[in-house]
Design goal:
With 378 residues, the protein is an alpha/beta fold. It has 16 helices and 13 strands. Helix 1 runs parallel beside helix 2 and helix 3 packs across helix 4.
Length: 378
């Protein structure tokens, strides 16, 4: 992020962000963005992370101070270690960014006598995990209402849920934010496209997401099998537990020559100019950074109309929106984008203008600081 704007007064408190994720996704991008923004805006800021996690490695490269934990996320020892960290560091604000972080971080803050607890909610956990795991997560959040002073939601859908639960006075919607590259945008990397087995005139679709059931990869692969007659290639960017299953599906559908598994990449932004479209086929979604980043590079979007995607994007204006779990609808969306590439490019430019106007990092920082002020009563 750029230097702190002159109209933002530096706050006299210290902030500990807690993100105990073992993988790297949208919540971790938000934590990283927030930590770098807060460094010059508060008296002190650090991030509590699991030792060796992707977030730990990235923050270390950026020089962001980390409080490192070597316990498993299910260990109650985390609370005691975090309590010691909070007391030693003299932190006034504890902002936790996933369910485990909220559970252990806010308990630790309560034990340390720190009342400035903020919970940043990135997902509708009950919808994302429609099983015992989801029920447990929602139960943790219900109990946490006794400790959390303020909530931050990242989408309109999550904010509406908080308000329905009676948390409206304590909840604030603060969208994720991304840096916006200036126009003109970079040209495609033809060598990279060739490595993806894409011919110069192929329409290359990218999906940037963990390989998990909720991300809907299998429906997109079924859709790819329905558009064999089109010059379309798919690049799957990300890693996860479904890798073997999705690879087997690709083979069974006979589309191995059309699908490239790129694995986990730290340089996603450098890949975006070489994609002709970015697809998000999720069954449930908050507001994924992948969509904002794709829009910031004016990539046409093909997304399922779920969660924050449905409220953020406008059908036919900033994206093609289709129902979730509907391979035929995804296939039709691909056909429309491929058939009229000029209209597809216009969708991308409309999305670019939207993120440039609404998802400023400066606006995000100002709103976060206002929530922190409320959490400690200043």
């Amino acid at each position: 992020m750029d230097a702190m704007p002159h109209d933002i007064a530096k706050r006299p408190y210290k902030v500990l962000l807690i993100d105990l994720a073992r993988s790297y996704g949208g919540a971790e991008v938000r934590t990283q963005t927030q930590a770098t923004a807060l460094e010059s805006a508060v008296q002190g800021c650090a991030v509590a992370v699991l030792h060796g996690s992707p977030l730990h490695e990235r923050l270390t490269k950026l020089g962001v101070p980390c409080e490192v934990l070597a316990f498993g996320r299910g260990s109650p020892a985390l609370a005691l270690k975090l309590r010691a960290i909070i007391k030693r560091g003299g932190y006034h604000i504890i902002d936790a960014h996933n369910v485990q972080s909220i559970l252990w971080g806010h308990w630790a803050a309560w034990l340390a006598g720190v009342r400035g607890c903020v919970a940043t909610i990135h997902s509708d956990y009950g919808a994302e995990y429609p099983n015992l795991k989801g029920k447990f997560y929602e139960g943790v959040l219900r109990l946490n209402r006794l400790i959390a002073r303020q909530y931050i939601t990242v989408t309109e859908t999550l904010q509406s849920k908080a308000e329905r639960q009676g948390l409206g006075e304590r909840a604030t919607l603060i969208h994720n934010a991304v840096p916006i590259p200036p126009l003109p945008l970079p040209e495609p990397d033809h060598a990279l496209r060739a490595a993806w087995n894409a011919a110069p005139d192929d329409f290359v679709i990218g999906i940037v997401a963990r390989l998990k059931p909720v991300k809907g990869h299998r429906y997109l692969l079924d859709a790819m099998a329905q558009v064999r007659d089109l010059p379309v290639k798919l690049v799957i960017i990300g890693e996860g537990p479904l890798h073997a299953e999705l690879t087997a599906q690709v083979q069974a559908l006979g589309i191995a020559d059309r699908v490239h598994f790129a694995g986990f990449r730290e340089d996603v932004l450098s890949l975006l100019p070489s994609l002709d479209c970015v697809c998000m086929a999720s069954l449930s979604e908050a507001l994924p950074y992948a969509v904002l980043e794709a829009a910031s590079y004016a990539r046409p979007l093909l997304c399922t109309a779920v969660g924050g995607l449905a409220t953020l994007l406008q059908e036919g204006v900033t994206a093609r929106l289709v129902p979730a779990q509907d391979s035929a609808a995804l296939a039709e969306g691909i056909r429309q984008l491929t058939a009229d590439r000029q209209s597809a490019r216009q969708l991308g430019m409309n999305a670019y203008q939207m993120v440039a106007e609404r998802f400023s990092q400066t606006v995000m920082l100002k709103k976060i600081l206002q929530v922190y002020d409320k959490a400690i009563g200043i």
